[in-house]
Amino acid sequence: MTTSTPTVGQGGLQFVDARGCKEWLNALPLTNLAQAQPLALEQLRALNASSMAGIERLKCLELMRDKVGFMVGEQRARHLGAALPLAAADQHAWTAARSLLEELEAGYRRCAEQASTDAELAPHAALVAQRIVRYIAAQMLWQALVHRRVAGDLWSRLHAQYAEAEAQGAALAPVKDSLDAEGGASSVAEAYAQAVLLQAAMLGQMSATQIDFAEALLRGWGRKLLVAASPPAEAGARPLVVDLAQAAGARHAAGESPGPGVRFIETGGVSLSLRKRIYGLQKGEDAISLGLPAQVGAVDALGELQRLHRWWCEAGPAKPAAHPSQASRASLVFGIADLHFFVSGGKPFEQPGKSRELTPQEKQDIEVFGRITERTQNRMMGSERRVTAEAWPVVDEAAGSVRLERPASAAKHVGVGRVVGIRLGDTGDFYAGFVSEVAQEDDGKVLATVTIFPGKPQPIAVRATRSRAPDAWQPALRLPALEKLKIEASLIVPAALGTRGRAIEVWDEGATTVTVRSLLARGLDFDRIVAG
Questions:
Q1: Is 424 helix (H, G, I), strand (E, B) or coil?
Q2: Angle at the Cα of 404 (from 402 to 407), degrees rounded to 5?
């Protein structure tokens, strides 16, 4: 049977049962998301408003779930993970996908209502409950991907759905989940624990690739998590604790007593898996051979596993106390190249050792003054490259970091993991740092925390070894050793040059070949390394 391509506004539900839904979905133009998403949203809303029989409604939702998962995944890959604020097209894509997730939750809630009186649907109550948990969790993640604080009502709905499943004895019942669970099976408790742990990873401090990696780990290790009403018996265990009566996520608490709404998420199995991989990486084993997911290739595997272990399985790192800053604003530049410009005294980057023909003005300066005047240099620098720093209001400071508010007039967008140059006030030296956390307020205000690397940066150049291309050298920075703080000298180099064991060339009054000994930080556009 052939069907015509659906169009928006055809009026009402376009199918009456799962067979008709499947045929309608087969005609959905998935290669054109701008067309497909409104169609799917229209039909989900019509389905939720319809009086369709419970079992047919569930079958339709399961069919639509697969297509919606594809569309949301595509929108996430295309539009999210970018810097904030989102461009208009990205914001539209984010809103459209959120609406799809909301309607899927609403659809499964209709099934849950019908299951209480529908004998054919009742045996699927655990699956329906698990799907509700999945789509609440998906909405929470969708907010976190654009660095919005997760709304309290989402936490309340998540806790309430788990509590209801637990009360009905369905929390541990196995259900099929080929879309979101490795191995194709899951449960309400597993989906709930995964949602809580993912949010406990401090997503505001993570880039999109880091979030993808954490998600993949939980998808594979979700079955290792346990939700219990009492704390684990083993000494030294540090479970995450949630209160089902509170509109909030997990907290780290040692020695907490059980209570009516208190649940302990035991992470001992995940801790063991993480520690095994951390040990293997420290011994030089390959990430893929250690059974880590494919997403590991986009992150610093060792650093990410250590970070996740701290947030999921330990007490969690203490956050330094913030205090008012003496500076009302900071000067900010983005990227190694712009920071290199400022720390080199406003000189445009040139390929080291490259000779060029003197300009007529330079020749005249040498004839008259015996040197090239500063005025001529400044004029040339201004014509070759003009870099300006943006003024961002300072919110507060903490040890080694500054929290800033992005002004409405800013031309630059901001994202976690981007290298920046920062100067408190309007004068003085620029220091190197990176955006370590981003938060988007309900009113659209964007706050960014910049963690500052210790030591005054010095301009250098780097390139891959054996590269003899004319423009192979790239701007980079050297950070000095600070013996009193026991901090080694390090380099800030363009992303992908910081692979451990790799040989690179460094130009600092001459070319030297060094080997990357350790990776201290990996961002979106930089690596901070120790080399020698």
A1: strand
A2: 160
